[in-house]
């Protein structure tokens, strides 16, 4: 019990609790890119609790996916700023068209979050849906330990990641709606997930206008 | 299909457990199946081009089935990996087996509840005094045809693995199954504690792990 701090040192009333060595999160360099790995097990438990927490407060699967989406959204907005800040000074530009943005997500965001790039990037082949793009991940890290029960087969917990992607798009001023869908591919990739990015009509309109000029 | 050689004889085994020989020698009784494990075949001295071989049992190794019992003695998982190894019993009997084993385990753990205590820590250090380790209770149950090993986790969940009596490294196997359980059951948000385990990924990983062992 001798390791507990004495009550005298915590006398001053402050909203911010400072650890005994005086180093808060604000003292850490913001530019850590390498060696900033986390334990996957602890993330798995945390994410499991997040899903369970959301599940207790919703009625249907859609609502649950929406909750997870909202949880990820704020991460996405902040992540965009952080990752751009960490880029070399010359390329610190916000993505200015849809393809650049999606590549930024597929490469930088995925690399930062999951340690690898997303597997594929596709544009919807349907000519009537020029606003739809797909980011494909064969094995989403968040779903690695999750078996969705049969009666909820519509659910994909990667809706959380979809929320992150949506946050990045919104933060970059490309408002979009992002949803996660399971498209299992046999024995090889049973958890293959498609993140469907549906940009708002004005984004596509602006894109077309900028391409002309 | 496996290809093997012993001396100058080459032969291969197809899926129907038939052995095909490329040349005829007197007798071959050892077939290397991989670098570690050997599978023994008895071969008659005069052979036709094709012949059916029987596995000599002492070297065959099979994991028959797995049962997981929760800390209240309820059966929460039951999987058979090898058809024909053990007779099928009804689900009800499995439940009784789980409950009975749980009781017997609890009693055997109390027969001699205290192991000798490790020597007390040297005075002056801050370590807490050693507590006697609890007795593990029934660990192995062996019959003529199978061997049942029990692994009791710290929280009282029991893993029972039924194997052939000659199976080696059951400890390692059972620990690995515990790993899979910790990963794919405990980290699954849709699993409620102490309830029957219905997790696709756990099933899949477990089956592929056991298949790897049984095919060795």
From TrEMBL, chain A:
Gene3D superfamilies: Trafficking protein particle complex subunit 3 (3.30.1380.20). Residues 1-12 have a biased composition (Polar residues). Residues 1-26 are annotated as: Disordered. CDD domains: TRAPPC5_Trs31. The keyword Transport applies. GO terms for cellular component: endoplasmic reticulum; TRAPPI protein complex; TRAPPII protein complex; TRAPPIII protein complex. Coiled coil: none annotated. Part of the multisubunit TRAPP (transport protein particle) complex. This is Trafficking protein particle complex subunit. It comes from Trichoderma parareesei (Filamentous fungus).
Automatic annotation (TrEMBL), chain B:
One of its GO terms (cellular component) is endoplasmic reticulum. GO terms for biological process: endoplasmic reticulum to Golgi vesicle-mediated transport. SMART domains: Sybindin. Signal peptide: none annotated. It is found in: Endoplasmic reticulum; Golgi apparatus, cis-Golgi network; Golgi apparatus. Residues 113-137 are annotated as: Disordered. Keywords: Endoplasmic reticulum, ER-Golgi transport, Golgi apparatus, Transport. Pfam families: Sybindin. It comes from the Eukaryota. Part of the multisubunit transport protein particle (TRAPP) complex. Belongs to the TRAPP small subunits family. TRAPPC4 subfamily. This is Trafficking protein particle complex subunit. It comes from Trichoderma parareesei.
